[in-house]
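Hi there,

I know you've been waiting on this one. I reran it after we fixed the sequence typo, so this is the corrected version. Both the input and the resulting structure follow.
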Amino acid sequence: MKNVTQYLEDQKNIKGHSFEEKADSLTSLGTSNFESGSENEFSDSKKKKGADGEQDDKEQDAKLSRLGGPDINDLLLVWEDEIDMIMMICTNAREYIVYDESDPEQSKILRRVSGGHQEEITILAYDFHLSLVATGCINGEIAVYDFEMSKCEGLLHGHTGDITALEFMAPYPLLLSASMDTTVCIWGVRPCPSKLQYVCVKRFQNLSWKQEQDARSVVTRLLVW
């Protein structure tokens, strides 16, 4: 089975792919377990009756329930030095997962981080110098975590739609966010003055207009340089 590093060498875009977790390692990244091929195989297996068939059905149902269609929403690869590399992903769940990618043969789970969101996480960002991770949720909420301690530092409320983009403005203690509500916000994060931490210090409204939809355009990418 290919590990993540090998997979990324073959595929430039992993959007729309899924993973299957086995023995606390990411052993494969490939097509969704719910695409037509595997779905047909599962339907065929359901037709088998008898004690063995029913047992197989129960195991398959449990497997599908455990996976829950974990499509990858966002992925980050972080090189800490020339050797050590970590990967962070968020799936259609309320957590993000950190993997050790130092071993070219196998990806190992370092930790799962949750507690910041009540809804699905759709995007994440990481800043090495601030040692912070930011995650965006479908309900417009943003959570900021201490990377080393996996502790939620603050919740950012200000957007009313799905978060579409997140970027730290290194070396400044600022975070940029964009949302389906067509706004862009600048947030203060540590170590800025406490009165500005996790507060929206500036909000911008996108004035671009989609005439065919009679609505404002949504910002889907933020570039910081």
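Quick highlight: The longest strand covers residues 72-79.

Best,
R. S.
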